[in-house]
């Protein structure tokens, strides 16, 4: 490639060659990354031919040949006759914008939803595949984190995602989390905004794509202000900023991406960061600004029950919903539709509610009393609120007792909820003693597994 670079650099001395508009001042003739190559020049026959000949010489010398099926010529402001002459002489097909370069749609106009169809289809295909219909809440949550993470590190870093696309992705993720499908037949149990809070603030730490995107655009503006050594930064300075202050540049003639980057000063100002502050920043953390844009999220008292819980994700997810009282207990369902019976399927005695089902219920309290005894805690089970308060106060820290308590609480709540569903939907039931054994076994197994993993997690020294 260095050979091609050298050859193309000689073009600035050749009078017959015309640079593409807005490329001459920087002598830009090409952009390349691995085996993707873009060549630019003015749309006249002589310049195109010169560029083509140069590439041919490089091809013969290096053996790297352009794949005619994957190569196209893109025109802008070139008359039909000239276009035809160039196409005929070179034998390539005519390409239309937008096209994808390194997987990203390139366009002169604002990108629309249609151009993101491959990304949306990819998510949709995964969600509708049969293997995914067996995932638990925790499994689905993991998948959503993966989708949002890949958007964060790939799409958002490179360029600006349209608002509509962000909304579509979020709504796909939302539906998948709560209904395991693409249709919204059920109300979300917890608002998406809440799920995007950090875990310590009662969320699940999901990515707020809007805020991340805004922070990522701000980084681009910071690059411009600091005149970073990047081709695009120099290019914007030469053609649009033209020695003025970046903060004051409007660039009405520029493409929407450049205008959007320049407008990011409003995002900075909204969170109280002024022009001089941006110039004084020696480094830029998208994450820090993201937190500022999202705003302060007060911590919740029960955070350690979820954040520092070594239990299985499926346990902590159910505990999380239970703490918010969002599990669909009969009293909640009755507010939405008519229900045949409100009686608790565990004790067949009282009515079922979030407060009743886990500790007040005769069946559950028998389980919890035994589990407390197993842990050597000398007290009997109380009401739901008291139990959560007790756990918040007494299971802090990293002592083995506290770790086991948090795990047992999550596993107990999960198993009781599972048993309740088995009774309600599959007419199967197990005695309390079976659940007690199950919880103890699962906590044992999980702790043994973690201890084993800790033993394995060493980093081999170099040369070993
Ligand atoms: Zn009951």
Automatic annotation (TrEMBL):
Domain Reverse transcriptase zinc-binding stretches: 284-368
Protein name: Uncharacterized protein LOC104225070
Organism: Nicotiana sylvestris
Lineage: Eukaryota, Viridiplantae, Streptophyta, Embryophyta, Tracheophyta
Gene label: LOC104225070
């Amino acid at each position: 490639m260095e050979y091609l670079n050298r050859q193309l650099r000689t073009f600035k001395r050749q009078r017959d060659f015309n640079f593409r508009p807005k490329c001459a001042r920087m002598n830009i003739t090409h952009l390349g990354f691995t085996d993707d190559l873009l060549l630019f020049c003015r749309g006249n026959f002589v310049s195109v031919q010169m560029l083509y000949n140069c590439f041919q010489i490089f091809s013969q010398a290096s053996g790297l040949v352009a794949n005619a099926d994957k190569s196209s010529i893109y025109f802008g402001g070139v008359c039909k006759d000239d276009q035809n002459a160039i196409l005929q002489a070179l034998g390539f097909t005519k390409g239309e914008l937008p096209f994808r370069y390194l997987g990203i749609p390139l366009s002169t106009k604002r990108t629309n939803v249609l151009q993101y169809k491959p990304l949306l289809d990819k998510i949709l295909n995964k969600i509708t595949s049969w293997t995914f219909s067996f995932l638990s809440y925790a499994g689905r949550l993991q998948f959503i984190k993966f989708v949002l993470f890949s958007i964060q590190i790939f799409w958002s870093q490179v360029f600006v995602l349209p608002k509509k696309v962000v909304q579509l992705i979020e709504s796909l993720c939302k539906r998948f989390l709560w209904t395991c499908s693409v249709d919204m037949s059920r109300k979300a149990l917890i608002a998406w905004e809440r799920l995007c809070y950090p875990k310590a603030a009662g969320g699940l730490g999901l990515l707020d794509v809007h805020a991340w995107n805004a922070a990522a655009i701000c980084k681009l503006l910071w690059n411009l202000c600091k005149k970073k050594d990047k081709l695009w930064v120099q290019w914007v300075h030469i053609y649009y900023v033209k020695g003025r202050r970046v903060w004051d540049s409007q660039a009405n003639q520029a493409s929407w991406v450049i205008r959007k980057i320049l407008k990011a000063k409003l995002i900075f100002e909204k969170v109280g960061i002024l022009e001089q502050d941006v110039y004084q920043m020696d480094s830029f953390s998208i994450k820090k600004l993201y937190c500022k844009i999202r705003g302060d999220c007060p911590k919740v008292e029960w955070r350690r029950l979820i954040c520092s819980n070594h239990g299985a994700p499926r346990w902590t997810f159910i505990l999380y919903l239970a703490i918010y009282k969002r599990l669909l207990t009969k009293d909640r369902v009755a507010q939405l539709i008519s229900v045949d019976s409100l009686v608790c399927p565990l004790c067949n005695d009282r009515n079922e509610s979030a407060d009743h089902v886990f500790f007040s219920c005769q069946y559950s309290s028998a389980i919890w009393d035994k589990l407390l005894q197993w842990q050597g805690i000398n007290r009997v089970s109380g009401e739901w609120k008291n139990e959560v308060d007790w756990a918040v106060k007494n299971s802090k820290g990293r002592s083995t007792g506290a770790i086991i308590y948090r795990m047992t609480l999550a596993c107990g709540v999960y198993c009781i909820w599972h048993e309740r569903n088995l009774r309600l939907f599959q007419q199967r039931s197990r005695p309390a003693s079976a659940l007690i054994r199950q919880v103890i076994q699962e906590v044992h197994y999980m702790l043994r597994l973690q201890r084993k993993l800790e033993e394995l997690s060493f980093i081999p020294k170099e040369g070993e």
